[in-house]
Amino acid sequence: IAVGVWHIMCLPVTLPHSIYSTVTVKTKETWQHLFLHMHDSKRTAFVGRFRHKEMTMVFKNIAAERATNRISVQTSRALSTARELSRYSDEPRRILLDNTSRGLFNLALLLDSGSEPQLTLATPDDDPGEDVEAAEPSEEDQKTAKLAELKALESELKPIVEHSTGISFEPKLNGLYLVGAGVRKKSIVKVYSVAMYSSPTLLPSASSSTSLKAAAQKMDDLNAAVTFLLEMVYSITAEKIASAIAESIRPRYHGPQTDIAELETLIVKGVNEFGGQASKGTSFQFECTCEGVSVSVNGSPQGSANFGGLGTALVGVFTDENAVSPSLVDSCVSTWSDKKAQALAGSLLALSSSIGSGDKAEGEAVEDEAELGNDLVALESELTPLQEYATSVTFQPKLDSLYLVGAGVRKKSIVKVYAVAMYSSAQVLVASSSQDTLHSAARSFDELTPTTTFILEMVYSASAEKIAGAIAESVKPRYRGSESDVASLESLIAKGVNSIGGQAVKGTIFRFECSGEGVAVIVNGSHQGDAKFAGLGGAFVDVFTDAEAVSPSLVESCISTWSTAKAQGLAASLNLAVANSSDETSTTLNPSEDDQSSANSSIDAHAKPLQDYLTGIAFEAKLDELYLAGVGVRKKSIVKVYAVAMYASAPVLKSTISQSTLNTAARTFDELTRVTSFVLHMTYSVGAEKIASAIGESVHPRYSGSSEHIKVLETLIIDGVNKIGGQASKGTTFRFDCDLDGVEVSVNGMSQGYATFDGLGAAFVDVFTDENAVSQTLVDSCLDTW
Question: What is the rounded distance in angstroms from the CA atom of residue 697 to the CA atom of residue 682?
């Protein structure tokens, strides 16, 4: 008798007789199936090296006969865990099956007699009367089992179909769980279907409308975000949908009305990107947090209205006693109020909390980091290169920190022009089960997927102008911005090919790094520059992933590579490992306080006041926590209009090696460089409208958003000058604080307000630091000083 079969037969030795009989009968039924495989008794006391569907059926039958309705959720969870085994390699699979069988054994015994379970195992060499106590699973085994158990629980979640519109919503969205779905009506017109997503913390509270509202509006560490997904079923204009949502928020929000106007602007901007009409099928995503509301339209992020209380107000629109969609509230309550759903909600919350918890004691961080690193390395070792079969070009499984999603070929008629590979984050791998989800994830450009990169290897020779023109022609119909932006991309490609002889011969490699800021172009490893226009990166991703993708074989490769159960398991594990690794190592990757203090001390020692020699205006060495990078003058013909100083963080100063690196560092708003500021000291007297218009005109060609946003900036400048008499006379000072959210304007030391529009801060930095900077003397001063 095979060793594994003997184990199964020996398992029920200490069980009550009723269970012994059941197990014996069920084991005999699978005798032939189990006998076909040899088993490795040294690796596990229960099972062999392979998974058997028949064995799962044995457990299922035993559990069904022994379990009661009172604990059906626990039984279902254990069985789902067993089904999840196919996602894992042999070792975790054996561990999970052991844990599952142990759980079912204890469950059955407790139900039968209420006695304390004592698990007895035996092998052919053991004395049948000798008891062997089961070993406790290791911490790593428990963690693996918990993750599998969470996946198993999540497999019980189902999409919800909003019955009056027929629109279906998936059970998870960006790590949040679907709470319910409803419809928004105006009179008898169905305007949009709406779904609510939240963390597992909210689910147990969805048993009544009152507790749902209270929990949803409580924004804290456990319930950091509530997201609403709206899908239009009635076509209306950008202004009308934005106004309707704003009108619903207004009575629920106690802050300035301008805050709501900014949210309204983000909605209009998003709809205008897609033709100005929120037509049927258009989707809006509103992520509500304690900081405000983030807006996405058709998967394209539009920015955030960061005002405390605004997120809570929007949650109130859909959950309070005057909710605009009563059917949404009803759906939430009906979905999560019965006992089975509440048990599932409680299990999801408990498992999510236990997996996410575990603050480390001092001294354990380095050890844990190493373990996480090892886990990630082990997972990445399972990745393999892909060969594009039509061209035989092979692509490696990793590119920097990005993973290979798929590979294909670009053809013109029967001519194979180039092989192409797509690299992106682990999050995109998880989303690669269909073209729609792949497309949305690859162009999301969020914290999880900041970049998607395409590698093109030529298999046909083309001139610089021809290959650049072909790529530009593919981008143009997908890009909503100016054609001159696409022309900039085209010129970078042509420039790169011309630098290697003017011909993109067979073997020439192009690399296009797409992000929320634009597209970086690299030819044969040489960086040609960045086409920094918001929306251009998304358009480039569309070229290869949308419904009219230029390489259908690339899309097919991505889906076929990552849509299987095994591949999805690997993708999910990679995604989790990357996220954990990022969380655990973030403090180590950042300089310690002592190191940062030391670095700042060296900057302090070098920083000094600077005087612009043409105007005689001197600027202090520091502005708040920022350092003086350089000074210059802005001229119109021979007229010196104002002296200008740039203040930046220490990392920006360290990056001031060339104009390009200065520009990149000053406009990269991250944890180390939150703000870059410019101080303008007037040396020539002009009217409020004239100075505002001049600054606005400089920003306009560098900003890809609405011209209305620039008018807001101009209005702030005009308001400030009007408060001091309407004339920006000699000695008037302007301060512009540029960050990720926009530009804050101050005149003579008094803040005038904030033009909060995504990308506007970077565009303002470009005015003074890019290749067409309005004050080259400022750039020269920065380079000379640092």
Answer: 18
